[in-house]
Amino acid sequence: MSKQKISLTDWQQQLGAVAPPRASPADNQVYSTDGGRVDASAPIKPLPQAYKDGVVRLKRETKGRNGKAVTVISGIAQPDEQLQSIAATLKKKCGCGGSVKDGLIEIQGENRELIAAELQKLGFKTKLA
Hints:
It is built from three helices and seven strands. The strands form two sheets. Strands 5-6-4-3-7 form a five-stranded mixed β-sheet, with helices on one face. The protein has a two-stranded antiparallel sheet with strand order 1-2. The longest helix is centred in the C-terminal third of the chain and has 15 residues.
């Protein structure tokens, strides 16, 4: 037996094994400086779910926010653009900040009565939860 060093591909050829075909570098591309991460297909965001009774619910939450109150509005089944515009209207009316996350509108502070009145003007049935 010889102590000669050979490459893995030469050794596989001597044994008769066929090397797997190599993929082109573009197929294995994970990151591109042109556009960031390369994804095969972008997932489609589903519309937020509305409750079966058609009522928009307003909840007061403090959990995970260092004791500060946030009004969470759920049950509005609208596309993201319309949720953004509704949130902007409510933020202007309340004079505070907020955001839209995962189909929920979060408004800073405890303004449930004011938000409920404004949503009723927009044509939604509301419930304080």
